[in-house]
Write a structure and sequence with these properties.
InterPro entries: THDP-binding, Transketo_C/PFOR_II, Transketolase-like_Pyr-bd, Transketolase_C. This is Pyruvate dehydrogenase E1 component beta subunit. Keywords: Oxidoreductase, Pyruvate, Thiamine pyrophosphate. The protein has helices spanning about 5-20, 45-50, 60-70, 90-100, 100-105, 135-140, 150-165, 215-225, 245-255, 270-280, 305, 310-320, and strands at about 1-5, 25-30, 55, 75-80, 115-120, 145, 170-175, 180-185, 195-200, 205-210, 230-235, 235-240, 255-265, 290-295. A seven-stranded mixed beta sheet has the order 3-2-4-5-7-6-12, sandwiched between helices. Strands 9-11-10-13-14 form a five-stranded mixed beta sheet, with helices on both faces. Strands 1-8 form a two-stranded antiparallel sheet. The chain is globular. The longest helix is centred in the N-terminal third of the chain and has 15 residues, at about 5-20. By secondary structure, the protein is of the alpha/beta class. It is about 35% helix and about 20% strand. It has two domains: about 1-185, 3-Layer(aba) Sandwich (Rossmann fold); about 195-324, 3-Layer(aba) Sandwich (Rossmann fold). The termini are far apart.
Length: about 325
Amino acid sequence: MVQLTLAKALNDGLRAAMERDSKVLVMGEDVGKLGGVFRVTDGLQKDFGEQRVLDTPLAESGIIGTAVGLAIRGFRPVCEIQFDGFVFPGYDQIVSQLAKLHFRSQGKVRVPVVVRIPFGGGIGAVEHHSESPESLFAHVAGLKVVACSNPSDAYWMIQQAIASDDPVIFFEPKRRYWEKGEVDLDADPPPLYASRVVRPGRTLTLAGYGPVLKTCLEAAAAAEADGHDLEVIDLRTLSPLDLDPVVESVRRTGHLVVVSEAPSESSVTSEIAARVQQEAFHSLEAPVLRVTGFDAPYPPSKCEEDYLPDLDRVLDAVDRSLAW
C-alpha cells in the first residue's frame, strides 16, 4: 500500500501499461518534455523515448485522427486533451470515426484509443478550462466513458482503459489531481465498467462521480451528526451506466440524490433519475433529486464557487428528500 496523489497514480498507471505493452503510446500537447500541464505524464518521455511519448502540435483533430490511424495499425494510443474545453476541435474525429469504425467494419477493425480529459472546475481557470462535457460523449454509441475520483481508481482504471479494445473517454477530476489516497498496487481492482458503494448507509442514497465524489462523502459525514445514515455510491462508469448498485440501494433507502458538476438538462444525472424511477418506482419515498451545475455557460473563476455543487447544496437536497 502506497500514498499517491491522483496525478501520480495516473502517471504510475500509464507507466505500468507502457512497460507491459510496447504498443502503448502517449500523445498530446506538452506531454513529453514538459510532462503535461498537470505533470501527469512527467518523466515518461525521458524513460520511454520520443517515439512512444509524442509532443503533438496544438491540433486536437490531428491528435485524435492520428490516434485512429495508429490504432488500426495495432497500436494503443493514449491521447491527452490538455483541458476539457479543448476537446471540441477533435469532437468530429471522436464521434464520427473513433466511435463508429468497429461497427462500420462489422467487427473487423478495433480502435483501442484512450482519450484522457481533465474535467470540471474549481481551479480558478479562464474560459474553456473548466467544462464538464461528459454527457455529450456518454450519448454517443460506440464510446465507453469513465471517470475516476480517487488515486486508487486512477491507477487501476487507466490501465484497464488502455487494455480495453474499445475506445474509452477517460475523465479525470482536475481539482483532485493533488489530493492523496492509498493505492494497493497488488490489489484485484474492480471491473472498469462498474459502480461501487464507497460508504454503506440506510437513510438515503447519494450518487456521484469524479470531482463531486469527495463532496458526497463530506455530506454523508456532516449528515451523520443529524442522525442520517447516507449511502454513497461512486458511479465510476457513465457509459455504460452501472445502475444495479444504485437501484439496489434505493430499494433499501427509498431516497436518491444525484450530484454532478455538469448542467442538469439532458445530462447523465437526467438518465439516472429516469431509470431509477423506472426500475425502483415503488420503493421511492420522494422524487429523485439532482444537485448539479447550472444550465448556463461556466462562469468566470470569481463566481465558480457559486456554480459548483457544494456541501450546503447537497445537504439541502438531502433535507428536502427526507422531508418529502
